[in-house]
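Project standup — Tuesday

K.O.: blocked on the structure for the chain from last sprint. Re-posting the sequence here as requested.
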Amino acid sequence: MSQLKKGSKKLLNAWAFYDWANSVYTLTIASSIFPLFYSNLFDTKEELVYAFGFEMKQTVLISIVTAFTFLVVAFLSPLLSGIADYVGNKKNFMKFFCYMGGLGCIGLYFFDKDRIHISMLFYFMGLLGYWGSLVFYNSYLPDIAFPEQQDSISAKGFSWGYFGSVLLLLLNLAMVMYPSWFGFDVSISKALSINGSETEIAAALEKAKNAASFEAMKISFITVGLWWVLFSQYTFYHLPKGSFKGRKVTKAIVFNGFRELQSVWTDLKNNLRLKRYLNAFFVFSMAVQTIMLMAVYFGEKEILWESEAQKTIGLIVSILAIQLVAVLGAVVTSRLSKSYGNIKTLIIINIIWMGLCFYAYFMKTPVQFYIAATLVGFVMGGVQSLGRSTYSKFLPETKDTTSYFSFYDVAEKIGIVIGMSIFAIVDEKYNMRYAILFLFVFFLIGVILLFRVPRLKTD
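H.V.: unblocked you, prediction finished:
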């Protein structure tokens, strides 16, 4: 197969299609079905779990494993990206993390509190695989697209990702809500309750349906893993292998990633525009990622739902609204950046985030929560898409794109750990409303730092 030329429509679409493949992880595993599954796995919300030599709350365990995974990604990305740039096989690294993540998702089918360590290993594999593959995926952007193409193709990738993930989520939700449609047995309790009262029979049938729905959740994890691995094949087929060829990894090269990291750090000192933008990105991304990770938990605890059924449906509807509106946000933001420049557009988006922090502090009703979810989806799609493409456009002319994007990735991951830690501390001392309000400070600092980024006419 001949290598596609940089900037060609087929190559750009092949790159963007990986968003279609991997975004199902963030929606199904990170945001919706797995959190519901994990909560239903325990008899009560207060049930403690024993893991890694400690007894802790179930929510604390998942938070610790999540934070630890992001720390691992932050450490590995500069190490592996340096090796990949030296050897020229970053596509192989991207494949490795993709397949590990897919296997981790499939392994979640066996997730059980009685096998908590192996269960958490599968969760760790999925999370590490997703974020690890993104290091190399993002680094391909300047390799396959010219600067004037990067905003639009980045937005297209996010848009495809949102559409694909929503499609699979709708299928998985149908499996969970109507398991009998998909062949799950919901009638086995009839034989056990045939001599009981109507109330007893109804309760037994409801129990059987819940058991079938729980099994459907587990099957949904398999669909995510298969979707991710299978659809990524189109991307892997067309992406170029790398900038260099024929080099072998030696012991000396293992630490090449850290030398590359130091080299990029030195270059950043001489690149004021890129350095200041990276500082701003670190701060506002910290707040954005924290809100994205905690939004469902906030809605579950702080909104006055009339019933458990309304809460479950409301949270699912909110998740879908965020994903669908994010598509519009990515497209609109891309167009705004062409008219007003990337930095000005990012400043506007961060100001909207500031307003949302105040709004979230006061909202209590489901309707108010739906409005917030819609606005969060719009600015989430915009800030993710434009944040990535702006960084790519600010890079100097270099073949060492992976190492530069590892900086981008490390900043994002460390920001997540710091953001979640601060959120947890404020939540523990006060409540989640004060924690959300406190994130206003980070968006304000982000705006100030964005104003300090030197801009060109093309920005």
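K.O.: great, moving the ticket to review. The longest helix spans residues 198-238. The two ends are 37 Å apart (CA to CA).
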